[in-house]
Amino acid sequence: MGAALIADLLARRGVMVDMVYDEGGSVGADGFPPYTTRPIALIGTAEKGYATINARVSATGGHSSLPPLDGSSAAAVAARLVLSIDRRPPQASLVEPVTSLLAALAPSVPGLRGWLFALAASGLGFPWVEMLVAEDLLGHDAPETAALVRNTAAITGLNLGFAENVLPPAATVRINFRLLPGSNVSALMDYLHRAAGRDLPHLTFEMDGGQNASLATPVTSATNPYFQMLKTALQEVYRLADGGGRVDVAPTLMAGGTDSKHYLPISRGGALRQTPVSLNRTAGDGRRVHGLNERVSVGDFGRAVCVMRRLLMLVGTLPAPAPAYAASS
């Protein structure tokens, strides 16, 4: 809670900042697979919300020598709920800033797919195009792209049973959600009721620990001068690093959370989330983040320092505060 306490102290002192920069998207050395291989730096202009809901199962219980024949045991109900969530995750949809990411990708994505990306990002209102693109982003067995177009539901806890010869009278399934901009707890509860199906009478749903959900952050505009300065710094440094080749820059939606959200109440311009180091997802670098063999190359460490140094130089040229938030979806 360090960041939250710092932000609260600054707010009580009346401190306002023009922009918040935090960790976030990386520089894709292999582009945005499987759509484009052109190097692209992603800047998180929003991050998904967070909610954990406990599904509590009520059952009759009894002796393990006489298990029920109708699938009404606490374990069976919990298992069906877990399987339903795993097989039928929340429905896909396109929201900002994912549509802005599609617009940035479209020129380098060949053929019909690139045209569909541009059309889906145009805001002209073609639901069938948006659904086609959303399904396409889901269809590559890539958790990173799937998380861009739907609320994610992950089973992070399962608790039942206290003795090997007793049928438990209750069970708890813990489900962690990450929410798209515009989504809320009501949508999550509706989804869980559908996932429960015929088992709904045996289930109750409640927020974990009585906590409230953290909704997705507002979307910071990519036309913000602070975004343009970060874009310039990234392109200058990485163009030099790779011998003059072009590095695209695009906004994206952060699937995970950062400390930046705590500072949003005191930020005039919102928050931008970028970690100026390169990842090659085709080579499996993405799985190393917070995982086994997490590392940063010596070269990338130096480039990250250069990006931040150049960014500070550019920010120092601004005479006035950045504009306020862009309208959130």
From TrEMBL:
Record-given protein name: Peptidase M20 dimerisation domain-containing protein
Ranges where the Peptidase M20 dimerisation domain occurs: 45-201
Keyword Membrane: no
Species this protein is from: Volvox africanus
Alphabetical list of PANTHER family matching this protein: N-FATTY-ACYL-AMINO ACID SYNTHASE/HYDROLASE PM20D1, N-FATTY-ACYL-AMINO ACID SYNTHASE_HYDROLASE PM20D1
Keyword Zinc-finger in record: no
Pfam families: M20_dimer
Keyword field: Hydrolase, Metal-binding, Protease, Zinc
Any one GO molecular function term: peptidase activity
